[in-house]
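#onboarding

Welcome to the new folks! Below is a worked example of what a typical request in this channel looks like: someone posts a single protein sequence, and someone else replies with the predicted structure as tokens. Don't worry about understanding the tokens yet, we'll cover that in week two.

Example request:
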Amino acid sequence: QLQLVESGGGLVQPGGSLRLSCTTSGFSFYYYNIGWFRQAPGKEREGVSCISWSAVSTHVADYVKGRFTISRDDAKNTVYLQMSSLKPGDTAVYYCAALSGSTVEDMCAMRQAMDYWGKGTLVTVSS
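Example response:
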């Protein structure tokens, strides 16, 4: 069974940067697309960025395009979300998820249930 653990969240000032990590355990990591999602208080969970199992395909939501970058290191069983030019509107709990058998676009749009979720890490953007 695949387990996902997020880390790297915290308090950052507007305009600052953070790098989130999603570390996985389980022999089947290599066959899963991995995505980052976020949920702000009182709002629905939304897709942020997703990367295919091969790292060939990525999807980045319009509201973070040009500011967030997703990458994966299979040797470390880890997917990263580099976040820069952070805004107060980026404040949310960030979750990573794993899904097989989907395009990254469909995964980020949450058109089907994820196979696995992490428990999330809180990012607060405030002065």
